[in-house]
Every structure is written in structure tokens, then in C-alpha cells.
Amino acid sequence: MSNQNNQILKNTNAQILDEFNASVMFDKELYSQDIKGSMAHSQMLYEQGILCLEDKEAIHKGLLQVKEEIESGKFEFKIEHEDIHMAVESRLTQIIGDAGKRLHTARSRNDQVATDFRLYVQEKSLSIKEQLKELISTFVEVASKHTSTLIPGMTHLQHAQPVNFAYHMLAYANMFKRDYERFESSYERNNYSPLGSAALAGTPHNINRETTTKLLGFKAPTANAMDTVSDRDFALEILFNISTAMMHISRISEELILWSSYEFQFVRMSDEYATTSSIMPQKKNPDVPELLRGKTGRTYGNLISLFTVMKGLPLAYNKDTQEDKEGVFDSVKTIEISLKILNEVIKTMIVNVDKMQKACKIGHLSATDLADYLVQKQNLPFRTAYYITKDVVALANSLNKDISELNIDEIRSANEEIKNIDEEIVMYLDLKASMNARTSFGGTSTKQTENQIEVFKTWLTRN
Fold first, then answer.
1. CB 257 within 8 Å of CB 157
2. What does the pLDDT read at residue 205?
3. Residues ≥6 apart with Cβ < 8 Å to 207
4. What pLDDT score does 3 carry?
5. What is Dmax (Cα atoms) for the chain?
6. In the chain, which stretches have pLDDT less than 50?
7. 3-class DSSP state of 366
8. Which residues of 367-391 are buried (b: 16+ CB within 10 A; e: fewer)?
9. What residue ranges are annotated as transmembrane (predicted)?
10. Which of 233, 218, 405, 237 has its CA nearest to residue 311?
11. What distance in Å separates the CA atoms of residue 85 and residue 111, rounded to the nearest whole number?
12. How far, in Å, CA of 218 to CA of 240, rounded?
């Protein structure tokens, strides 16, 4: 092979290796956090007498110019910069000269990336938390209008007992409240500054980590530099929190898909969030909830991917952790748009009260009330009451009626043991009465549901 061909091959291999090694084309997402961290670091270096005032001011001015160039689209990211840190530092040095080379004193790219990435995760934890709060508020708003609207409560996707639609909406409000609390607790647990940990063992320079901690808005510096530069628990936590919230988004999406079908017709989604078939103009497809349900899978994948990356890493920093960011960026973008869209879907959906009411007359939803009545009023063992109720249900089926539609004579004729049952049982089997009988704390009665709404409204005001 000629020397010329050898050189071409070497150049090609070098280019491939540069592309393989570089992260700048995706970690540029962290530019604002990187600049924020650099400004805090340079301020601390100045206060500690490591940087002179002139150099510190030049660095700050230059960093702000770099930020403006990035945000205006003038900045050119290049593979040879390798990562966002070198891209910013290289341009800073071009702008201000040798003063820019002093910025990296007393830090390493190891603690720099840990700081940038943690700042990003902390900021996103707060913003996602606020989106969750807005979604919870929407569920509560819808619930406030439907505390007496009956809907079949289901187990195994079979009609079970009558509940009100507000109660069903509040079940999701509770799910998303837990998600809110997960992001909140993760923020508190991870609100520690990595900056100053250097490569893995700290630095001999006379730095003050408390200063950078305060400037960056953290609670305290991290306690062990070796753990700090290799720690990605905070990234795993936000991926888990996102995955759990997306699982809840997927569950409500599945119900919206079912409820909007011809078989249910409980809700009608706004035309903005549904599409027609390409060949069947009569169809209205729930594409948006389907996409929300589908996108859950990618957030699970991102979580498992980072778990797999981290599982065998020795201390301290390893290049493997360069694989930590793209999945987090992707999951963050996924949940941000998913929460925004779901909020609008819930806000704009039309609730078909009549269809829900009609569906409650399928499946004998108040059958349990007969059994409970026999236990409470007739002092029968529950198992005996259970079998008597089965007889009444069988009679209702033979008459092509729901149990709530039986008259007193029909009920008495179903089983010898209840031939003299009091006529008040008819009232107990009424669907709305059945729903309102669930007065235990956390139950579905209108009164209990209204109490839950008030609790949520108080919580929303305080948070």
C-alpha cells in the first residue's frame, strides 16, 4: 500500500475515532449550565486570590459573549472540541486570550461535567414538577364538575361497582401527586455541588467550595470527591421518576382510548387530539393518547440503558458515563411534551354523562349493596348473603334487567330466605344510592369525593 493510501487510511481512522470519542454534538445541551458553573468557579478563584480582578472580569465578559453566540446560532460546534467544556473554553480563549486559559485552574472536566449535568437535572426536576402540578390542577378542575356523574368502576376491566367520574379523575390526580413528590424529594436529595472535586481527589489549590455551592444554588458541597465524579444516581433518579410518571400517563391514555371507542363512548376528544383514517373518513382515531402510551417505552429504555452502563464501573470517573446524557435529554423532552399535551387533552375532552349512566346499568353494579344489606340488616353471614345475591342476579338476568331495576316482589321471589325482605332494599340497590353509600374515608360517595377535591385544592394552593 502506498504512503499516500496509508495516510488517507490514518486520516479516516482518526476522523472516525474523533466522532466516536466526542460528545459535543449532544452535550452542547448543557451550554448554559457549563457557563454558569464557569462563572461561579472564576468568581471563587478571584475571591480566593487565585485569579486577579482583571482576568476574572474578562472571563465573565467573555463567557457571556459565548452564551450569546450559542443562543443566537452564531457559535460553531466542532467535533475537534470533543465536549461542551472544551468548546466553551476554546472560544473563550479566542475572545480574551491567555486569561481564558486560567479558568480551568483547580478543576477537572470530571467535576465540571458532574456539575453541569447535575444542574441540568435539578432544573428539569423543578420544571417537570411544575408541569405535574398543572396537570393535577386540571384533573381536579374536571372532577369538580362531576361529583355526581356515575361511571362503572371496574376491576379486571369488568363492571364492578358504581363510582362517580370525579372520583376516577382524582385517582389519577393522586398518581401524579406521587410523581410530583418523587421529583421534589429527588431534588432535595441531590442538591449538592460537585464543583471542586477535581479529577477524583480534590485539589491542592486554596479553593472555597462553599462559595461555588452558594453561587450555583446548591445546599452544600458533596462530601467525597471520588464518589462525586463517578456518581450518576441523580441521573438514574430523574429517569426513574420520568418513567413512573410516563407509566401513569400511559394508563390514563389507555382509558381515554377505551372511553372514546364506539363500545364505550364515555368521552369525545377534541379534534385537535384525534385524526381521521386515511381511507375511512368516518373514523376518529385517538392518535395522541396512543402516542403518549407508546412513548412510555422509550423512557423505560433510557432508564435500563443507564443502569446497564453504571452496573460494572469501578471508581472513579470512566468514559462510559459519557453515555449518561442522551437518554436523560430524550426522556426529559419526552415527558415535557407528554405532560403538556395530556393536560390539553383532559382540559378539552367532552364527557358523555348519559353514556356513562347507561353503562352503569350493565353488570349489576349494586349487587354488593344487596349482600352488604343482608349482613347489616338481616344479620346474615357474608358468605350466605353472597349466595343469595347470586340468586337475585340470576333472576335479573332471566328478566333481562339490571339488579337496580328489580321491584320488591321480584327480589323476594329470587330466594326463600329473603321472601320477607323489607321494601327499603329497592332504595339500596339504586345506582346513585350505591355510590353514595361508600362514605368511608377515601370512598367514592359524592361527599367523600368533594372532601378529596378540597384537600387537593388546599395542596395546590400551598405548593
1. no
2. 98
3. 44, 45, 48, 50, 106, 196
4. 59
5. 107
6. 9
7. coil
8. bbbbbbbbbeebebeeeebbebbeb
9. none
10. 233
11. 11
12. 22
**Strands (E) located in 222-314:** 267-268, 275-276, 284-285
Distances (CA, A) of 277 to 267, 281, 282, 283, 323: 19, 6, 8, 6, 40
At 10 the pLDDT is 54
DSSP per-residue codes, 250-268: HHHHHHHHHHTSTTT--EE
Burial label for 323, CB within 10 Å (0-12, 13-18, 19+), is middle
Specify whether the CB–CB gap between 259 and 216 falls below 8 A.
no
Set of cell numbers at residue 437? 353509600
- Residue 2's pLDDT is 57
Q: What is the pLDDT of residues 29-74, one digit of tens each?
A: 999 999 999 999 999 999 999 999 999 999 999 999 999 999 999 9
42 touches 60 (CB < 8 A): yes
Which residues are within 8 A (CB) of 390 and not within 5 positions of it... i.e. 6 or more apart?
none
- Phi and psi torsions of 298, nearest 5°: -70, -30
Single-letter code of the amino acid located at 220: A
Is the bond preceding 359 in cis, omega lying within 30 degrees of 0?
no
Distance CA(137)–CA(208), nearest Å, equals 43
- DSSP assignment string, 98-127: GGGGGTTTT--HHHHHHHHHHHHHHHHHHH
pTM: 0.93
CB of 448 within 8 A of CB of 463? Answer: no
Q: If you search the block for the grid coordinates 472535586, which residue do you land on? A: 197
Cα-Cα-Cα-Cα torsion 150, 155, 157, 159, nearest 10 degrees, comes to -40
Can you give the length of the chain in residues?
463
Which residues does the annotation mark as catalytic? 156, 277
CB 372 within 8 A of CB 425: no
How many CA within 13 A on the CB side of residue 64?
5
Helix (H, G, I), strand (E, B) or coil at 275: strand
**Percent helix, strand, coil in the chain (nearest 5)?**
70, 5, 25
